Amino acid sequence: MNMNFKKIFIYTLLISGLASCTIDDFADDYSDPSKLANTTVGKQFTGMIMSNRQSVLPSYWDYFVIKRITSNRFTQSVGWVNIENQYVPGSAAVNDRWNSYYNFMAQYRELQKVYDGLTDVKKQENRVFMIAAATYFYDHTQQVVDLHGDIPWTEAGMLSTNGGDYSKSYAGYDKASDIYTKMLDDLAGFATEIGSLQINAATVVEFKTQDLINNGNIDMWKKYINSLRLKMLTRVSGTSEFSARAKSEIASILSNPSQFPIVADNASNIMWDIYSLGTVIGTNDFRSGLEDWNGNIAGKAILDHMVVNEDPRLTYVFQTGIKANGAYIGLDPLMNPTVQNELVLTQTLSVYNFSTISRNQYFPGILITAPEVHLMAAEFYLKEGQDATAKMHFEEAVKKSIGFYQYLRSISNNAEAGAPVVPTEQSISSYLSMDEISWSAASSKDEKLSLIADQKWLHFNVIQSNENWHELRRLGKVDLDFWTDNSNQQKTPPSRWMYPGSEQTYNMENYVKVQPQDKLTNSIFWDIN
């Protein structure tokens, strides 16, 4: 077997591209895995985070290769010209996303390997790194599980641990629900443990230096842990297997903010911030990633929703076409492709705002934000019959989302889109009173759940594309019409991604066990709509 393919498909280490890193605090700290004797837990922790940077920071690879033809279309966050086979995730997108995750996993395994070689005293001193690393790893594991379902996990990424023995390193598939159980169990333990850690002064300094996500802030890691628990519990809350657990643990988290703090305001958003331009972790290629091949054209449904309801976020999220005379126009997905193409050429279609989003070189890598946390809380309290509390969280989510987009614009170094219309208390109040937005105007729990789903869709848009698609599938409340592709068995958006072809080629013994469920029409276990 070709050695390069082995390295990719048995989930080994991804090192290329990191050697030229120019960030002062990072350049000397990333470990070359061939020199593990010289590394530390802290350096491996940073290396693990860096290896996954293109799945967090807006990148050409993530937006153009992957999201442009998958989640951005499946949620109609964008408009596009209909083509045959458009609802089948492309092999490049599937392969790249899969390989990226498993290269990231391999770095996590290296960190575990280094940690396991420490004395008990050193393990205790470095425990905070392992809690933070597992939290970050679980966040991204959930994303891959929610794309595919069952994945190789418990046994995966072990080539280095197995001494380079390929025959021992082909990984079996774990059930998606079992992976969720393991992650939820661990995160619940972390939520308690991290508050009781005794961290010495030297570790505090090292953690602050090596932590690219929360800059060593333990309180922020507590919020990350508990907010991630909320996200995972909410995702599985409708299943018979997890419903009781989800109800109990979500109630515990939301009712004990001192013990289980969450991301409740925009100052606590979990994000990978960009502090200087021209480094390996900048977002300079966000522009081409989102804008190339008209990838940032506004979808008609999402744009119309914002325009009709006078959404205060409108001028932050979108801008009018250069020949539209100030009119907001989205691309209708039900149009004939020839007509769509003609409309694109008129340059009248609205696009995502250059200055807030795609040309904002300080755009952060977003992990969890306050608006989505409040929407999760609103959903929980709605289902528990606590309408007033649900309404409070719903309206707080909208306000926090407005503030979030104002923040994104405020840190931008680009002004091409022109000044946005700054929201006032009156404009926000008027928005919340609109018939299509108002909590009080909704006459049933189902209608109120639809309001929550709509706000998730509006808040996530292309910013958190995969989260948008996962929640759209789970809730099944956003009313979207799709062009029917009669050229393919997959006539509308899929329910999951298929596994990459490499699994059949290099991991066939394990793949055959999941092959019967490897269909685009098979839902992930939590998708019960």
Overview of the structural elements:
It comes from Algoriphagus ratkowskyi. InterPro entries: SusD-like_2 (IPR041662), TPR-like_helical_dom_sf (IPR011990). Keywords: Lipoprotein, Signal. With about 525 residues, the chain is mostly helical. It has helices at about 5-10, 25, 40-50, 60-65, 70-75, 90-115, 120-125, 125-150, 175-195, 200-210, 220-235, 245-255, 285-290, 300-310, 315, 335-345, 355-360, 370-385, 385-410, 425-435, 445-460, 465-475, 500-505, 510, and strands at about 150, 175, 270, 320, 350, 365-370. The chain is built from 24 helices and six strands. The strands form three sheets. It has a two-stranded antiparallel sheet with strand order 1-2. Strands 3-6 form a two-stranded antiparallel ribbon. A two-stranded antiparallel ribbon has the order 4-5. Helix 18 runs antiparallel to helix 19 (about 385-410). It is globular, with a radius of gyration of 23 Å.
